[in-house]
Amino acid sequence: MRARSDLVEHFSSFLQFEADRASGWVNDRRLQKNMQRCCKQTAISVEPEKYWALHWHKLWESAGDSAKTASASSIQTQFAQSHLHANLQETCNWVAYKASTRFASTQHGISDCFQIAIAQLDKVLKGFNSDQGFDLKNYASTTFRSFIRDYLRQRREVDICTDWSLLRKVSQKRLTAALSRQGMTAKGTEPYVLAWQTYQLVYAPAKQAGSRQQRR
Predict the structure, then answer these.
(1) Cα–Cα distance for residue pair 214/30, rounded to 1 Å
(2) Residue 71 and residue 173 in one domain
């Protein structure tokens, strides 16, 4: 999938998924026209993407405060939020990819993790404080990761722990199924299953006194 290079596209296009992978970008014509108009009115030569991210976030904050009393503010809020939603697409996708790779025991794929995170966009925007000098994408990356981790942990699909603890808790059936999904034959999984059985027999039952860590 190609990366976005055009400034207008950064704030007006959204990811399209196929077979659990981001396959391309879909432009929102309404956002595109609004962004083009704004860029013509205000030309920024230094870090334009960062400038517009902060601009839309400040507008989202100020418009949200008065949205109950003015319909115009409500429209501004929608535009600002939509532009920010578009801008954070790549960040959210990268976090979702890393989460689905790290937590191999979960049944949620990249697109699932993406939707889990992006659904919390309001919380990301509310928690971000531009006055502290943080970059919105960096803040969003950390926050998206936290949302995905908490979502999966609450549903007990993954245990946020060490690799050794994961080996101790995974069953032979799930281990074999995970290896099979990687394209291994039944014969090919045998050495891995044997190693797991040895670990369970020799290391897993033992704990150091006064410590929660597994003996290595």
Answers:
(1) 56
(2) no
Q: How far is CA 175 from CA 97, 160, 168, 201, in A?
A: 21, 17, 11, 16
pLDDT band at 179 (very low <50, low <70, confident <90, very high): confident
Per DSSP, the chain holds a count of helices (H) and strands (E) of: 11, 2
pLDDT at res. 26: 95
Residue 72 clears pLDDT 90, i.e. is over it: no
Q: How much is the pLDDT for 186?
A: 84
CA distance 196 to 79: 53
| Terminal-to-terminal C-alpha distance of the chain | 41
Distance from C-alpha of 169 to C-alpha of 150, rounded to nearest angstrom = 19
Quick check: is 109 in a domain?
yes
The DSSP secondary-structure symbol of 207 reads B
